[in-house]
Structure formats: C-alpha cells, structure tokens
Amino acid sequence: MPRGVAGNSLRPMTERARAVSLAGLVLLATACGDEPSVESNADAGAQNAAMPAQTMLGDAEVMASVVPAAHMGAAVARRYAIAPVRDRALVLVIVQRGGAPVPVQVTGHARDLRGVRQTLAFDAVDLDGLVEHVAVARVNGPDTLRLDLQITAEDGARTTLRFNRDIPR
Q1: In angstroms, how far is the first alpha carbon of the chain from the final one?
Q2: Spatial CA neighbour of 139 closest among 74, 75, 49, 52
Q3: What are the phi and psi torsion angles at 69 (to 5°)?
Q4: 156 pLDDT exceeds 90?
Q5: Which of helix, strand or coil describes residue 59?
Q6: pLDDT for 49
Q7: Cβ–Cβ < 8 Å for 70, 77
Q8: What are the beta bridge partners of residue 34?
Q9: Quick check: is 128 in a domain?
Q10: Buried b / exposed e across 58-95, counting CB within 10 Å, b at 16+?
Q11: 112: domain CATH number?
C-alpha cells in the first residue's frame, strides 16, 4: 500500500490512545443534546461513523471522521451551523503536529453504495485553537459512504486518506 494511504497497520500506543480520545470526544459531542436518541441500534452505526480514519502528512497526524447530522446534539449542530437532519453527515478532518494545528487544504469526494459521487467542499473552522476542516455530505441511511480525501500542506506535501463509514438510519 502506498505511503500516506490509510491501512490496517499496527500503530504505536500513543497514536491509538489519541485516536480513541478523538473518537470519544466526537461521540460525546454528538450525544449532547436536548432530545433522546432516535433508535437504540442507530447508536452502533453512529459509533462506526465517528471512529477516526488516520494517516500521516510528513510528521503531522491526519484524522478524519464522519458524524451523521441526525445524531448530533443541538449545541453541536449550532456550532457547525448544520440542521440535525437525517440526510446529512459532517465530514471532519483535523491535522496536527505535536498538538498544534497544521495549515492544510482538504479536498475530496464521497460515494454511496449506489455509486453516486459527490464533491465535498471543506471549510476550515477554528474551535478554540483546534482547526477542523468541515464538509457536509448528503446521505440517506442506512448506507455506506466511501470517502477519498486529499490533504495538501502549505509546503506542498500531500497525502490521501481513503475510508468507508456506515451511516445508520
């Protein structure tokens, strides 16, 4: 597999701990809200969607996750200016070096199980010093999104992150 493309390789424990922490934060953020969850088995699909995909861009760590909009709490939906509707999902990309954000440009597309391709338009959002690159994907669950993201640093270094995420009903 080419360098920079996400795969199933063993990672150092600190990287795993960081990934678990990010997944936990995303899940906590999606759980905060005024309304109860939609379906109990939807929680398992939301957890799968929120698990981060990872790769490296030089010595910077790239993490990406997908969060179904319907599973976001009201406060989180307001933060990202997205309505918590069933046919949308947030695609989040974070690039950090030693805990500090790395300036990058993120482009990419998503494809559903029917083969319908959509271009993702990413915007950088600064959340108290943590820069997230955010795009909205159209998806009607249950479905699987296949994501193909290109991340380019200011110095021209590039990497590709390809991963699938199940989207619950």
Answers
A1: 33
A2: 49
A3: -60, -35
A4: yes
A5: coil
A6: 55
A7: no
A8: none
A9: yes
A10: eebbbbbbbbbbbbbbeebbeebebebebebbbbbbbb
A11: 2.60.40.3340
Tokens of 10: 């063993």
Task: Quickly tell me which residue has 């309304």 as its tokens.
Answer: 35
Q: Give me the amino acid identity at 85.
A: V
The answer as to whether 5 is a domain residue is no
DSSP-derived letter for residue 116 is -
pLDDT range class, residue 83, cuts 50, 70, 90: confident
The two tokens of residue 163 are 């991963």
Q: Three-class SS of residue 16?
A: helix
Is position 43 within any domain?
A: yes
Q: Which amino acid, residue 83? A: A
Residues in the chain, overall count = 169
**Is residue 2 a part of any domain in this protein?**
no
Q: What is the pTM of this model?
A: 0.72
Residue percentage of the chain with pLDDT more than 90: 53
> How many domains, in total, are found in the chain?
1
User: Residue 1 has which token pair?
Assistant: 């597999």
Instruction: Give the domain range for residue 114.
Output: 13-167
